[in-house]
Design goal:
Order of helices and strands: HHHHHHHHHHHHHHHHH
Oligomer: single chain
Radius of gyration: 21 Å
Shape: globular
Helix content: over 70%
Structural class: mainly alpha
Distance between the termini: 34 Å
Strand content: under 5%
Number of helices: 17
């Protein structure tokens, strides 16, 4: 069911759109948590470290895929908000063409080069084979990643945040079941975890595609709309590639930080892995708010309703700050107990490190809330290139911590890498938002006259 976000209470619309997204992100992180939990509990700390050591590299590549797909959906949101459904379908078809090309090229390149990259990252010798086996299967499944993320982004651009969640829940349940079968019953080790992820995402993507084709008549293109359009391709790349690069540039800083943590040994890597998994679960509401603001901003720019942009930003900021405070309190009280889901009670060093990571990161969740809300709103308004600069700020911060502070202060310094990155990004995003708002307002006023 499509939803028009250009009329009605911004707070009510944002809540209504973001809550289904939140459940989707929670399920996604839930099966990521279970995936990590099963690996840590049944395969041991080294296997947990092997999977965790690929996290930043995984985010570098898969994050690019997700960013590109979300960027491709921005012109569709503009067309939907403007009521131009022929334009929406033409952009959709060309986005599919581009995604297929990106998927093939990226799969080939990443599968070939992932082992050398792991070596360059100084992955410890005792875990590098497991790390390679895990990540090479994930990269071989890049086409499935593009399929699900593109179709779900297209559906969200029309205001439907529920349908993608349904298929994500199906994928999550399937992933957990396959994890248990592949790791415990078939003894496939870390390869079983990555196979479960790829298979479940492929099933989810195919299901979402079939359902959307049958359900949404608005997405059925005619012969004219199915043509390859160079102008549309340029617009899509102008939106999608910067958003993908924003994820990847941010991830480069994470790769550098991960390389620094790798030098601290398997326990530090396992600690970072467990802490990051728990933190990502608690950060799901921020992700949901960001995705909501991208659609909200896109539709309202398309409808030329700039007054609603600032109202939506205020409403979402209130939600973000409130949740950030709540999350800090919960993690401060329960962080040590949450670490026990991943390792045995005897792993005292790992448990202490996980708690320190969670405490420091959650103390800076308010800056993180604004990173997601403001950045995605800017992107939804059509200024994806600013996302690259925000990503550069995050990369610079994590690189600084990884190169300069981790060698001196060890694991505690690594815990401050993300908070510093969020503050750097906000320092850029706040003035950037004021600039793009004034620029868009002026442009729309001129077009109306």
């Amino acid at each position: 069911m499509t939803k028009d976000m250009t009329n009605g209470s911004p707070m009510k619309l944002i809540l209504g759109f973001s809550i289904p997204l939140l459940f989707g992100y929670l399920f996604q992180q839930f099966y990521n948590l279970v995936d990590t939990l099963i690996v840590g509990r049944f395969l041991g700390v080294d296997a947990l470290a092997a999977v965790g050591s690929t996290g930043s590299l995984n985010f570098l590549i898969i994050g690019f895929c997700m960013g590109v797909c979300n960027g491709f959906a921005i012109p569709l949101a503009h067309k939907f908000g403007a009521g131009d459904y022929r334009g929406l379908r033409a952009f959709m078809v060309n986005a599919i063409y581009l995604s297929a090309i990106f998927a093939v090229v990226m799969t080939a390149v990443t599968v070939v080069f992932c082992r050398p990259i792991l070596e360059l990252m100084r992955t410890p010798d005792n875990i590098i084979d497991g790390a390679y086996l895990y990540i090479v299967i994930i990269f071989a499944g890049i086409p499935a990643t593009y399929l699900y993320n593109l179709i779900s982004a297209i559906i969200r651009s029309m205001g439907d945040s529920k349908t993608p969640v349904v298929f994500l829940v199906i994928s999550s349940v399937m992933n957990i079941a396959l994890d248990l079968v592949f790791i415990i019953n078939l003894h496939l080790g870390v390869a079983g975890a990555s196979l479960a992820t790829v298979i479940s995402q492929a099933v989810s993507g195919i299901g979402c595609l079939i359902y959307s084709w049958k359900k949404f008549e608005i997405l059925h293109p005619d012969a004219e709309e199915r043509r390859w359009n160079s102008s549309y391709m340029k617009t899509l790349c102008g939106m999608g590639v910067p958003m993908g690069l924003q994820y990847s540039i941010t991830a480069i800083g994470s790769v550098i930080l991960q390389s620094a943590v790798n030098t601290l040994g398997s326990n530090a890597v396992a600690s970072m892995t467990a802490g990051s998994k728990i933190g990502m679960f608690f950060c799901c509401p921020f992700d949901a708010m960001g995705s909501t603001m991208a659609t909200y901003g896109g539709q309202n720019v398309g409808a030329k309703k700039m007054d609603r942009i600032s109202k939506g930003l205020k409403a979402c900021s209130i939600l973000g700050i409130g949740y950030a405070i709540l999350a800090f309190v919960i993690l401060a009280l329960t962080g040590r107990n949450l670490a026990l889901f991943f390792v045995e009670r005897a792993e005292v060093e790992v448990i202490g490190n996980v708690y320190l990571f969670l405490l420091i990161n959650s103390a800076f969740y308010i800056p993180l809330a604004f990173v997601n809300i403001v950045r995605f709103l800017i992107q939804g308004m059509g200024y994806s290139k600013f996302a690259i600069l925000a990503g550069v700020c995050e990369m610079a911060a994590r690189t600084l911590v990884g190169f300069a502070l981790v060698p001196l202060f060890g694991f505690p310094a690594a815990c401050f890498a993300s908070p510093v990155a969020w503050i750097f990004a906000d320092a850029f995003l706040f003035p950037a938002y004021r600039h793009v708002y004034r620029k868009t307002e002026k442009m729309l006023n001129v077009s109306i006259q």
